[in-house]
Amino acid sequence: MSQTALITGANSGLGYALAQALAQAGWRLGLVARDPKRGQAALEQIRAATGNDALELFIADLVSQQQVHSLAEAVLGRFDELHLLINNAGTAFRKRHLSPERIECALTVNHLAPFLLILLVLDRLKASAPAQVIQVGTRIDTALDLEDWNWERRPYRMLAAYGQSKLGMLHCTFELARRLEGTGVRVNCVFPGVFRSNLGKTDGGQGFFWQAVDRLIGWALPRPEQAARGVLRLVFDPSLQGLNGAYLWNGRPIPAPLQARDPEMNRRVWELSLALAGLSEISYLQVASVAT
Q1: Does residue 130 have a cis peptide bond before it, meaning omega lies within 30 degrees of 0?
Q2: Cα–Cα dist 185/85, whole Å
Q3: Average pLDDT of the segment spanning 241-252
Q4: Which tens digits make up the pLDDT trace of 170-212?
Q5: Could you list the residue range(s) of the whole structural domain that residue 239 is in?
């Protein structure tokens, strides 16, 4: 029986390359996209290229927690098993924007949406074990300001907000890995390297900036397909099958930002993330139970 994977941001760039590689390997796939037309076009292109008919499209705008809940419900309704969740979708904004829940949008899309999605499908991953979650991170050495995570007091800076949102993901990767010991579900964070990406080209109105960057150095950057191979080493490389709670680049451990190495900070970020996602430790356990 083929294994089942769910990939966010699967209609272009790295997500598309990941989906195509897994489809070629015979996996059953759920592709998560924000735009129905682009998502359907990506699904049809992957199907034509690989001959894999076991592809399903899920539409969700990850800036909305309500849509993340609906996405999880749809996934659990269609997939009896889930062996792999790749949280790939990411974005950056030139200006501060707020989600429907009044949370800064880079934080919402890059951290809280994958955090919430994991918790909502976690029991299905456990029931399908061995299973794993792969978080697509970045390599920006920064620290979280937990007193102003929502950028209410500080001047908003796009790259700083992006870096902090991805650091939030890394904190919770480490905390979740500890909590999942012995369950058969692994969670790791992978830096895919610098490659030609759609990051920021359509979100937040900063298209001219990213187009200029692309014109200057884009030709020299690796293609998403090359970055995808590094991410998927966690799936296909036997030497990496036992890893849990690792931060990797092309199959090799890399140093996490100093703040993320502190288990107490991991716990604090976890608890703050639960609150921002509208959950508590008690309600999270109830969600995990209901999700099955």
Answers
A1: yes
A2: 11
A3: 93
A4: 999 999 999 999 999 999 999 987 655 555 444 544 455 555 5
A5: 4-290
User: Which pLDDT score is estimated for 289?
Assistant: 40
Which residue from 195, 252, 199, 192 is spatially nearest to 218, judged by alpha carbons? 195
Query: Whole-prediction pTM value?
Result: 0.89
Is 162 an annotated catalytic residue? yes
| CATH number of the domain to which 217 belongs | 3.40.50.720
H or E segment at 71? helix 65-78
Contact 173, 210 (CB under 8 A): no
Which residue type occupies 178? R
Number of domains observed in the structure of the chain: 1
Contacts of 133 (CB under 8 A, 6+ apart): 84, 85, 86, 87, 118, 125, 176, 185, 186, 187, 188
Among residues 16, 162, 247, 284, which one is catalytic?
Answer: 162
Structure confidence at residue 103 as a pLDDT band (50, 70, 90): very high
